[in-house]
Design a protein that fits this description.
about 290 residues; mainly alpha; MetI-like fold; 13 helices
C-alpha cells in the first residue's frame, strides 16, 4: 500500500481530443456584425427620422409651417453653394471657440484653486450654487450694456454657459479620485500642479470629458439663441442671425436649413471630436466600456 502511494505521480494529466470540445465561441452572423457597429445603428436612426420628417411634412402639406426634408436639403445645398451659409457657420464657430476656450481656462483655474485649498472649495461651491442655475441668455441685456453690440457680449454669455458646467464636473471628478491614487501621488512627492496634472486629471478624466461635452452643448445653444436676439457685428452675422433673417422673409426652408446646419455641426463635434478623444483616452485606459 505504501509502495503504491509512493509511486503515484504528483500531477495527473488526461489527454482529451480537441475535437470533443465543440464550438467555444459562436461565430457572428453578417447581420450581428453589422448591428454591432454603432455608426450603422446611428445612421439607421438618422435615416428613420428623415423619413418620418418627409412623410409628416407631405401629409401636412404646408411649406410655410413645416417644409419637407427634401426642400430643407435643397435649401441647405443652395445656402452652401451661393447663400453664404458656410460663412455664417464659420462666424458662429469662431466666436464659439473663443468663448469655449476662455470658459475652460477659467474653469480650470477655479477648480485648481478649489482642489488645493478649503477656501477655494467653498468659493467654487458658492459661486456654482449662485450662477449655475442662472441662464446665460438672461445675462445678455447686461452684456449688451457692458460690452455693446459686438462679439464681446457673445463671448461673455458663452463663458458663463461653459464655466460652471465644466468646473462643477471637473471638481466632482477630482473628489471621486480614490485615496489609493492620492497616496501614491503623495508618496512620489507630488504637490501642487504636478499632483493635479499627473494624478487627479487622468483619474478624473471621464468626469472632465463629460463636463466638456455639457459645456459645449450649453455654449452652442446659447450662441444661437444670442444671435437670434442680435447677431450682426461689423456687418456680418452667424447662424442665429441667418435663421432670424430668413424667418422675417418667410423663407422657411432656409430657416430649417439653418437649424439643420446647427444639428449637423453638433453631430460632427459629438461623434468625431469628442468620440475620438473618448476612444483615445478613457476607453483606451479601460475606464469606460
Amino acid at each position: 500500500m505504501a509502495d503504491a502511494m509512493s509511486q503515484r505521480p504528483d500531477v495527473v494529466r488526461e489527454t482529451i481530443d480537441s475535437a470533443k470540445f465543440g464550438v467555444v465561441e459562436k461565430p457572428l452572423s453578417t447581420w450581428e456584425r453589422i448591428y454591432n457597429q454603432a455608426s450603422v445603428r446611428k445612421t439607421f436612426i438618422l435615416v428613420a427620422l428623415a423619413v418620418i420628417w418627409e412623410i409628416y411634412a407631405r401629409l401636412l402639406d404646408n411649406p410655410l409651417l413645416f417644409p419637407t426634408f427634401t426642400a430643407t436639403i435643397e435649401a441647405f445645398y443652395e445656402g452652401i453653394v451661393g447663400g453664404g451659409l458656410l460663412g455664417k457657420a464659420w462666424t458662429s464657430i469662431k466666436v464659439l471657440l473663443i468663448g469655449y476656450a476662455s470658459g475652460i481656462l477659467l474653469a480650470a483655474l477655479l477648480t485648481v484653486v478649489a482642489i488645493t485649498s478649503r477656501i477655494g472649495t467653498d468659493l467654487l461651491e458658492t459661486l456654482t450654487s449662485m450662477f449655475n442655475p442662472l441662464p446665460a441668455i438672461a445675462l445678455l441685456p447686461l452684456a449688451l450694456i457692458w460690452f455693446g453690440l459686438g462679439n464681446g457680449s457673445l463671448i461673455f454669455v458663452l463663458i458663463h454657459s461653459v464655466l460652471w458646467a465644466v468646473a462643477l464636473n471637473t471638481h466632482s471628478g477630482f473628489l471621486s479620485v480614490s485615496n489609493t491614487l492620492r497616496m501614491v501621488g503623495r508618496n512620489y512627492g507630488l504637490r501642487g500642479l504636478p499632483y493635479v496634472g499627473k494624478i487627479l486629471i487622468p483619474a478624473a478624466f471621464p468626469s472632465i470629458l463629460t463636463g466638456l461635452k455639457i459645456g459645449w452643448a450649453f455654449a452652442w445653444r446659447t450662441l444661437i439663441a444670442a444671435e437670434l436676439v442680435f447677431g450682426v457685428s461689423s456687418g456680418s452675422g452667424g447662424l442665429g442671425w441667418f435663421i432670424y433673417e430668413n424667418k422675417n422673409q418667410l423663407e422657411i426652408p432656409n430657416v430649417f436649413a439653418g437649424l439643420f446646419t446647427v444639428i449637423v455641426i453638433g453631430l460632427l463635434v459629438e461623434n468625431v471630436i469628442f468620440r475620438t478623444v473618448e476612444r483615445k483616452t478613457v476607453r483606451k485606459w479601460g475606464m469606460q466600456n
